[in-house]
Amino acid sequence: LTLREILPDALETACSKCSDRQKAGTQRVFKFLLEKKPDAFEELAKKYDPRGMYKAKYEADGKKMGINV
Predict the structure, then answer these.
(1) Which domains does the chain have, with CATH numbers?
(2) Which InterPro entries does the entry mention (predicted)?
């Protein structure tokens, strides 16, 4: 499976089907994108979260992990 196939379900279900390793990897990727490649993050957000509902859902969780969403 590709990220493109997995991402919509992972966003909807808070990665409930992900292993701990996958969750940790996802956190690293999002932190990297937000800190180093914000334009790429915005592109992904426009595609997979055009209404901003997932951003609102995960913002508090991100802050707890030191990720500013």
Answers:
(1) 3-64 (1.10.2080.10)
(2) A10/PebIII (IPR005055), OS_D_A10/PebIII_sf (IPR036682)
